[in-house]
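Please predict the structure of the following assembly.
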Amino acid sequence: MKKIFFYFVSISVIIFSGILFSNTSLLGLIFIIFIGLYRGSATGSTIGFFLGLTDGIFASSTFGVLSFSYAVVGYVTGRLPGRIDEENPLAQIIIVFIGVIFSKIISIILEMIFTGNKGILGIGWEFIFVIFVPLFFTIFKKWWLLWFEKLTVER
Amino acid sequence: MYKKNPTILLSFYLIISILILSFNVNPSIKAARDFLFYVIISPYSKIDSAIFSVNRFGNNIKELVDAHQQILDLKNENKQLLTDLLKLKILEVENKRLTEILNYKKNLKRKINIARIIAKPSQQYYKSLIIDKGIDDNLKENRAVYGYYKNHFGIIGQLIDVSKNTSQVLLITNRISKIPGRIIPAGVDGIILGNETNELEMAWIPIDAEIKIGDEVVSSSASDIFPSGIPIGIIVSISQSGHLPFKSAQVKPTIPAFQLTDVFIE
């Protein structure tokens, strides 16, 4: 129950901060990848689905696209081999970068299938965010430890 | 349990997502999305507006002070404009009145002077008034004085005390004023007496005279001062004079002297 409340509060904070800074997707994706890496693919895909669903309300994309792509990203992140060191900042940056690209590709494909709109895979200024991924990971870890005693890797 | 089968869980989420995507064109999905947007954005918009209000607080205070100053300036300007407007209204009324008087004077065949009333003490309303013309303007005592009020011309009195630059007018409503008058169309004469009210008394009217309320009273040819036929007033009531074979009438003056600012002197 406490975890559900934790995830609910986290998603709310991410959504509201996303609205505040006019960037709803990247912070959420970093959180999904963080959860996927530490809590496994089941939790990663669940958080990805609900965060994508909420994000989809505000995003200009077709409703359902983000829930699909985020759930997949959360699942795939949780499926990464255990030998990948989730504490390594470089690994964190690379995983998030690939995760973002992967999510965008899925979104473009879904848009094309369901709406016929041909999307363009653009790399915008928001990718600068990726450099700060270790910082966000640290913040998320502190946030987790604020609620729970320890953060164990379950993938 | 679900942690052991994350693939099934993912499949479930993907199916739901695809279902949402499939029914995306459905208005109910759009309505649900709009509803969720409203539910989530409402508290945010309140927080955002609160933050915005705090940020704007300093500017708001400055704008408030500026607005207050502007209001004060506008109030002063408005006051000045109202004063100017009042002055213009007074001038307009004065101009209209003087124009009427001048037009009337042009139509008169007699040689007439126009004098301005310079003193009209309240206790003298029905007795006398002072005008700004005198001996220097060739005025003499016992000259007829007329008034013009609301398109009516009529007798208001006579000059009794003429000095160098001013003169005193004895009003017909004064108790000592006695002038001969004639009731038309009956053509009977009587004496018009002042009684220092807003009405005159016309006495010594033959008891058989066929007069009625509303008949006009004009100056009689028996007068040495006033030419005949100049309006004096209108009969408002008629009464018997005791056992004598005369009756008297209450006459409302044609010209209320206390309303005038200028007079005509023949």
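The two ends of chain B are 125 Å apart (CA to CA). Chain B touches chain A through 27 residues (CB under 8 Å).
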